[in-house]
Specification:
Layout (H helix, E strand, L loop, with lengths): L2 E4 L4 E4 L6 H8 L17 E6 L9 H7 L9 E3 L10 E6 L1 H10 L5
Parallel strand pairs: 1-5
Antiparallel strand pairs: 1-2, 3-4, 3-5
Length: 111
């Protein structure tokens, strides 16, 4: 089973193949935003993939277009809602600052 590790929070979780990084974040309560509900309509689930990018489905044009609107996009940026695990192994991600802020805005009691 694939494993996702969130470097910001030192949380790790196993998720089934086909699940997304956002699914993993929700499973362990990692502070990853999802204002649009995970339908690739915003960039609040923005993450940086530090390790294991080859285990993820390739980014499609729609995701790349949304990432252009994200704050501080980098070569390893992905939308957590679109980055699904296709293979077993470990994926290490850092949740972007804008995503953490979106999470805190959505969950004011978490801050």
């Amino acid at each position: 089973m694939p494993t996702v590790r969130f470097t910001n929070t030192d949380q790790e979780v196993e998720i089934p193949i086909g699940a997304s990084i956002l699914d993993a974040a929700k499973k362990v309560g990692a502070p990853e935003g999802d204002r649009c509900g995970g339908v690739c309509a915003c960039s609040t689930c923005h993450v940086y993939v530090r390790q294991g990018e080859s285990l993820l489905a390739e980014a499609e044009d729609e995701e790349l277009d949304i990432l252009e609107k994200a704050f501080d996009p980098r070569h390893n940026s992905r939308l957590g809602c679109q980055a699904t695990l296709e293979k077993n192994g470990e994926v290490e991600v850092e949740i972007a600052a804008e995503s953490i802020q979106a999470y805190l805005d959505e969950h004011p009691d978490a801050g």
